Amino acid sequence: MTDQAELRRDLPADSRLTQWQAPDGWRHRRFDWPHPDARGRILVQGGRADIVEKFLETIRHLHARRWSVTAFDWRGQGGSGRLAADPHVGHAASFDAWVGDLTAFWRDWTRAGEGPAVLLGHSMGGHLALRAMLDGGVVPDAAVLVSPMIGVRSPLGARAGRAVAWAMTKIGDPARPAWTVRPGKASAGHRQQRLTHSLDRYADEAFWYARDPSLLLGPPSWAWVLEAFDSGARLQADPRLAALAVPMLMLVADADRLVDARAAVRLAARLPRVELVRFGAESAHEILREDDAVRRRAFDAIDAFLDRLR
């Protein structure tokens, strides 16, 4: 294993994994890496089925630039328990609990520290960040949204895709998986192409899940798919977007095959204080886990954006 891979796969020696308890008692797996001379703090939140470890390389970059970094696994995934009887299904009847968790965590976290507080959300994390900001429960000094899940991609289109998801929740268990993962290189290759062009970074997942299989989460439930369509539609139609004063940086991969990049670009046009950076065919969904050239451009944009907070 190369030194670079070791940095992506090992927790920093002076970081810590603990638990955070939501107001309803739900326990979440939490990561903290304080900086001894911090310029501020960043909360890094991943997407559906993500775990803290997927962002270690991003966390190390931010920490090297004197940010204290925190993250937690969303309720129902990673080390934060499950919401379905089948532990491999990513279930949610509503995203409200996740917005509530983020709001409560943000309140506790900001009370416990000083300096600028920044929220970085990837994919579903970006969706939930926007909802929490619109509701007023999360008011960061700045926000970075990476491949935000404003709308989900469907080969049928949003309207027909939503209709199928609704029907599937009515004719069977809404918590059953929306698709079946078939073992083999063909299935793995299909997933890798949707996530990242970097084979090394994609391989990191297998390392983490081999080390701790309990962290692995598989396909979403039909209920999750339906809620993703519905919550995305409400988000795109929300009139409060035009008054959202938080400075934002949005990174969008136009060739994204998991979320609707066009919906993200349309939403960005309605935000009063947003910088939009778009990537072409060189980037799949996971911009921050892409090949080095894409990552360098992404982090140059993030660093310049955050430097302006001074």
Automatic annotation (TrEMBL):
SUPFAM superfamilies noted in UniProt = alpha/beta-Hydrolases
Q: Which Gene3D superfamilies has this protein been placed in?
A: alpha/beta hydrolase
Please give the superkingdom of this protein's source: Bacteria
Q: Where is the Serine aminopeptidase S33 domain?
A: 37-292
Task: State the protein's name.
Answer: Lysophospholipase
**Which organism does this record belong to?**
Sphingomonas taxi
Organism placement in taxonomy: Bacteria, Pseudomonadati, Pseudomonadota, Alphaproteobacteria, Sphingomonadales
